[in-house]
Each structure stands twice: as structure tokens, then as C-alpha cells.
Amino acid sequence: MKKKTATEEGRKEEKIGMKYKRKNFSKWFSEVIAKTELADLRYKVKGFLVHRPWSVLAMKRMYEFYEKEMERFGHEPVWFPVVIPEENLKKEAKHVEGFSPEVMWVTETGCGKKLTEKFALRPTSETAMYPMYAKWVRSWRDLPLKLYQSGQVWRYETKATRPFIRGREFYWIEGHDVFATLEEAEKQVREDMQITENVMHVVYGIPFIQIQRPEWDKFPGAIHTYTADTLMPDGKVIQQPSTHLLGQNFAKAFSIKFKDRDEKEKYVWQTCYGPAIWRMFASVIAMHGDDRGLRFPYEIAPVQVIIIPITGLGEEKRVFKKCKEIAEKLDKSNIRARIDFSENTPGWKFNQWEMKGVPIRIEVGPKELKARSVTLVRRDSEKRHRALEKNLIKTIDRAGKDINKKLRTGAEGFLRKNVREAKDLKELGEQLKKGGFVKVDFCSIDIEGLPCAEKIKDKFHAQVRGKRFDKAERPKGKCIICGKPATCVAYVGREY
Ligand SMILES: [Zn+2]
User: Fold this and answer.
1) Rounded CA gap, 180 and 248, in Å?
2) Among the listed residues 222, 269, 266, the one whose alpha carbon sits nearest the alpha carbon of residue 248
3) Span from the CA of 451 to the centroid of ligand 1 (angstroms)
4) How far is the CA of 439 from the centre of ligand 1 (A)?
């Protein structure tokens, strides 16, 4: 009988049933989170998640890339308090109206004393930051002011919560920028989209479509909202980083004024930007994972290279020594490597680390020692390579870049395939069944288009997401609902 390879043995030992990403994405998603130990769902407060090291390590890397890019585009970091006095929160009428139902209040102390003024746990930080901005901005010389902070926010969601997708506590970055003119603020919106492109698309491998949201679906207190919309494997739309052109609404509410070059006092123009690391992590899990578990892009993987000793009789010492040597070498080149010295069989280890999404596996055994080489296996393609020890760093580097590219291209293909068109309502219904975005001629994303959007919602449980922001798409005919001349091509989809 043919001797079983370590990999086959591992497959047999595998007790994980993640064989249905396409068939039952929802179940796959929950299972992958539990089995790869990203989070523990057994905490007793709904919508609050216990994050385990494997997710935190990845999200820390994701934060690093994002923060670096925010800073490269001229932002500086700040840390603002978690609590916002009620008085601040009430200042911008639309904003307070939009966020009120979700705000969680701190109202009393441990000894039962009622606070004279209650505090909100920040649902977002405009009303924490802008009173300070009013003190910091004095003249045109203080502008632009571009700050960001990383941290959590709290919103008492009434919709169903799901780990990394929708929670009552989530992790994000918020950028808050102040300008002297509307033109500069509008330019910032495009710059924010560029940051999303440079990090979420290029580094995390998540492609997206730039959308301008309809008037009825914008950030409370904003003039316009622009978002990066993308898809989940089940064809549902997920909103990723959005930028809000705040205009002067908050400037007037918080009295943020500056003396311009012409000596006149003017209100500032503002934007805010909210890349949620937490949600982007959901996309990373969902878009890149497969039936065997996670597949991390090389750049953000908690462990980039796992080294597995394959020990023959009497060779243990030499093999272990070589593993340590290699790990040190990788460490010196800033490659995050780990050796699995555990008592498990090699097959079990192969499976475990594949499931956890480590991009590259290195096997070191007596055969490899003899040939002064290692066996290198890629998580994305399962391809095995022999790599000479002296070329190891270069080989890993190249493989890492290639893995990122392959995952990204795969996700791009998925998004492209799932943008469809519909000419009439019947076609819209059919196309929506396939999931993804459906493009339709639409009367308007200004407020007069709302009744048509509501009809689409009632009939198909789908939303008009808005129109393309990065390019003008000309409609060919009439609004798919009301029959009036269409002013735009709207993207319709079912939302997370
Ligand atoms: Zn219409």
C-alpha cells in the first residue's frame, strides 16, 4: 500500500466542515470566526465581541497601514475622550436626530449619584472634536487642519448584529478635516477615496465601487456622503469607508470661524472620513477565505511564514536547529515567522495553519537539510516549491507579493462579474436574485427620487445605493420606476 503523505493524513484528521462558503456563506462566516479563533461569541452582552489574538494581530497590521497612509496624506493623530457631554451632542440638529436613538448614555455613578449632566459614549466624534476645533482655528494660517483618531465607537444597533459587520461596539479610524474653501473640502473627498484605494484595495485586496449616496441616505448633518461599496460572497452589498462633505453645517453649529486673508471672518468647510477597520476585516475574511478557512493577504497576515519541522529518527536536534536558524534569518528581514514545535503530526499542523490563513509554509526535514534548501508551500495555490536556503528571503518576498496580487485579482473578478444591468422591473427582479449590483436608469438621487427608491425597496427589499462618484455614467432612457427622463444610472443592491 502506498504510504500516505503528511498532507493526506492531515486532511483525514480534519474535523472542520467549512466546505460551503458558496452554498451557505452565513454559516461559513460564523464557523470560520470560531474555528480559526478570531473571536469568541460567548460574551454575554449582545453586539459586543471578544477579540482573540488572531484577529487583533491582523487588525493591528491593518491599522498600521491605514494610519501611515492617513499621515502621508497630511493627517495627524489625536486621542479624544470617549464621553461627549449631552450639550455638545445636541448642537447640530440633523446630527442629533440621526444618532439619538443609538446613543448609549452614562447617567450615574457607582454610588447611585445621578450625574448633573449625562454623557454619551461617542457614536462618532464630530461633537467631541468640533468644540475644540472652534478654539484651535483662528486664522487662515491654521488651515487646513487635518486630524484623525483610531479607536472604538458605540451605537446601540437595533438591527441584527454580526461579528465584524455590525456591532454595538466597533473599531475604526475617523478623520476630521477643516478647510478655508469648499473646493479644498471637495478635493479632500477625492483624496479620501484615494486612501481607500491605496490601502483597502491595494493592500487588503478588497476592490470597491465609488458611490455618491442619495440625499435620503446620507450622514446626519452632511451635504453629501460618498462611500466605497463592495460585495460579500453571497452577493450582498457592504458599505466600506465613507466620506461626508459636511459643508458649513457643523461649523455654524459649533462656531468654527477663521479670519481669512481679506481680514473677514468666515465659517470653515469640513469633511469627515470613517474607515472602519473592523468592517474591512469582515471583507478580508469573506472575500479571500475559501472552504478550508482563512487566506490572509501577505502584508496583513498575523504570521506570514509558518515553519514546520519534519523530524525523522535521530534527526530531531538538527532539524530544530535549522528551523531556529531560518526563523532568525526571517526575523532579521522583518518577516513575521513562527515555528510550530508542538507535539502534533505534521499533517495536523499543515491543516491548522492553512485554516488560519498563513500565506506561506516552510517545511524543514532531513531531506531539506541535505539539499541546503527548504520546501515552500503557498496557501493560495497550494503549490510546492523547493527554495535554496541562500535565496530564501528573495523567494519569500516574491511569493508574498504574488499572493497579494492573486487574492486581489480574484476579488476584482468577483466584483466585476457581479455588476449587472436591468432595463425594466422584471429584469431588475431577476438580476437581483443573482446578487450583486444592478445598474438601472433612475430619475434622481436628489430628494425627488425618494418615492421611486421606496418602491424598489418595497418590491425587491433592495436599496438604491446611489450613483457612480468617480465617473459619469450616462443613462440611456427613462427612470425604471416613474418613467420620467433619467438623470443618472443608479446602483441597486441588497445591503448587509
Ligand atoms: Zn423615478
Assistant:
1) 10
2) 269
3) 7
4) 14
In the block, residue with C-alpha cell 452554498: 23
State the distance from the centre of ligand 1 to the C-alpha of 428, rounded, in angstroms: 14
Ligand 1 centre and the CA of 214: distance in Å?
13
Non-local CB neighbours of 36 within 8 Å, separated by 6+ positions: 54, 293, 294, 355, 356, 357
Q: How far is the CA of 229 from the centre of ligand 1 (A)?
A: 22
Find the 460 Cα to ligand 1 centroid distance in Å.
Answer: 15
- Say if residue 223 is in the same domain as residue 352: no
- ω before 144 within 30° of 0 (cis)? yes
- Ligand 1 center to residue 442 CA distance, Å? 6
Domain count along the chain: 3
Residue 2 is assigned to a structural domain of this protein: no
Domain residue limits at 204: 25-288
CATH number of the domain that residue 325 is part of? 3.40.50.800
Per-residue pLDDT at 19: 56
Regions in the chain scoring below 70 on pLDDT: 1-19
Predicted pLDDT at 92: 84
Q: How far does the centroid of ligand 1 lie from the alpha carbon of residue 247, in Å?
A: 27
Query: Is residue 151 domain-resident?
Result: yes
Amino acid at site 74: G
Domain boundary among 342, 373, 403: 403
User: 168 alpha carbon to ligand 1 midpoint, in Å?
Assistant: 35
385 and 439 belong to one structural domain: no
Beta partners for residue 166, in sequence order: 162
pLDDT computed for residue 256 by the predictor: 98
Q: How far is the CA of 481 from the centre of ligand 1 (A)?
A: 5
Tell me, yes or no, whether 303 and 161 share the same domain.
no
Please check whether residue 316 lies inside any domain of the structure: yes
